[in-house]
Amino acid sequence: MTAWPPPVSPAKIFPADQWQQIDGLVQQLDPAQTLWLSGYLAARAGVTESGANAPGTANTDLTIAYGSETGNCEQLARKLFEAVRQRGHAARLVDLATLKVRQLRKISTLWLITSTHGDGDPPLGAVDFHRDLHAADNIKLNAMHYAVLALGDSSYDHFCQTGIDFDERLAAMGATRLAARVDCDVDFEAAAQQWCDERLAALPPVAGNRAEEAVASATIPGAPAALHSKREPLCSEVLERLPLSAPARRRGNYHLTVALDEGSLALEPGDAVGVFAHNPAALVEAVLADTRLSADDPVEADRRSMTLAEALRGERDLAIPTRKFLQHWAQWSGAEVLRELADDARESREWLKRHHLLDILRSFPAKVPSAQHLVDALRPLQPRLYDVANHITADTDELDLLIKRFDYRVGDKEHPGIASYYLCDLAPGDPVRLYPHRNARFALPQRKEPVILVAYGTGLAPYRAYLQARAARGDDNPCWLVMGEQVYEQDFLYQLEWQDWLAGAKLTHLDPVFADDKPRRQLGSVFVEQADRLHRWLADNAVIYLCGEKSILDQCEQQIQYAYGEAAGLTPDDNATFWKALADEGRVRRNLY
Ligand SMILES: Cc1cc2nc3c(=O)[nH]c(=O)nc-3n(C[C@H](O)[C@H](O)[C@H](O)COP(=O)(O)OP(=O)(O)OC[C@H]3O[C@@H](n4cnc5c(N)ncnc54)[C@H](O)[C@@H]3O)c2cc1C
Ligand SMILES: Cc1cc2nc3c(=O)[nH]c(=O)nc-3n(C[C@H](O)[C@H](O)[C@H](O)COP(=O)(O)O)c2cc1C
Question: Whose CA is nearest to atom 25 of ligand 2?
Fold first, then answer.
């Protein structure tokens, strides 16, 4: 890295009036111009700085850092890193999982690419860095220039929150923005490419023509090799579909078994799979009818040729409209009200939350220029995650999932969830595409401490995998399962299996709670009733797992904390401190959706 100010006094090199002119000019430059000029001057001089850089590379002291959970940001960062090296520049590529906050002081240019996960949380590997960055009150980054590219999904409440956090925190620590942050939605490719192109364009020219050498000497850290991934999913078939709830239940739970080639998915209890679903035929037909386009029109989606009907079925989201879609639809329909809405980022965001795509198609009839225009305006259909419900070993040739039909309201209409209905309606022999999604945040333990497992509904899935693993391994650490559903006679999911494990001492305690049978007894009531046990188990280093519907589990967690505070005789402040310490130790783990 170049030290600044330079070690030699300018007075020894420049006459005073010349230095005054140079200094005056430099003071007026913005960070991108300064960076460019430094390379330009190095190139003019035909020399490179010695230090961290390879010979023949410009001394930009550039670090490209990424925070990524499902690989999108990592892939973008790797491509950008390669492009930088192709241009003959030295750079470092760093996963935020390995970057320490104090190391930032040595970085003069940081390009940071990050996604957001959970409920506005950093990607798993970036959790520590994010926490430490926000706690680092004594570190100043006045010498750093940075730019942030944020990936997210605008259907989440905390859109691109981690990118926002990093951007704001680096500025607060004194670093200088090279460019305004760019927040990308699920169709991130074009915006991300533009951000990368702008970063590359601001790189200074390289001294001499030694770029090829730099490329030859560049070592790009290898990506972990995986048999299947989001980009190369496993194409398998359904073996079995069993309704688990009583037929009377409108939104029932289903047990789905999918065929696996042995060893094709490496998954631990607590991990999930991502499933590529299809939109229902009726929704595809409705969109075709409302746009008056032909199902057979040829289109390209994600660089593959197909018919419009195929693209609408498997590639594009037909439920969630985005602001980009609104902008296109305003143009095609000529509706002034849509144009005004689309111009206002905040207002359109709120409005879109209350409208289904079909509401727009029907309320504002439009002439869509072509099938391809429609495909390009819609956001890509996203895979959905489902927790693995069985213990997968190298010999396992089946994957179990526990799925509930999910309905949701937009405005005053109820809609069926795309992926949950798709999966619950699959029949044996139907094809299904999926990929492994590691969820280390929720890794179930292979250790001796007691575990308290709390689930509502489908939140039971990973615990079934865990109990199978415990039985196979012979684990004997205490295990307490508290599970919630609606009605005992209709919804006791996998009842016989839990009872067998209880009889075989793989489960120490089982507390089912059925909300409709005893409306005043909630999931958290178990802990209020058994506060002494909770207190004892936590004193023995128990780890608490919470899985399933977020609103119910959040409330349950509050009741757990309250019950503990009462049993331990803690003041509310001391109780809050206790729970914060527990969370910091990784002893409260959540998988909420
Ligand atoms: C780690 C993880 C594990 C999971 N494990 C399981 C499991 O084991 N079993 C299980 O059943 N589920 C599980 N889920 C939930 C699952 O991934 C799906 O979220 C759930 O099945 C609903 O998906 P869907 O496609 O049916 O609904 P969607 O079609 O995705 O609809 C759901 C949501 O999309 C949004 N939405 C849709 N349309 C609009 C619109 N027009 N405007 C605004 N918002 C809109 C709404 O917020 C709505 O609530 C898990 C989730 C995660 C993150
Ligand atoms: C379980 C899950 C939770 C997510 N939560 C959010 C969120 O809270 N806010 C957001 O903007 N995006 C959210 N996303 C979207 C991701 O940020 C987006 O898919 C991104 O492209 C992933 O990049 P990565 O593969 O580098 O992790 C979530 C995605 C998943 C799978």
Answer: 70
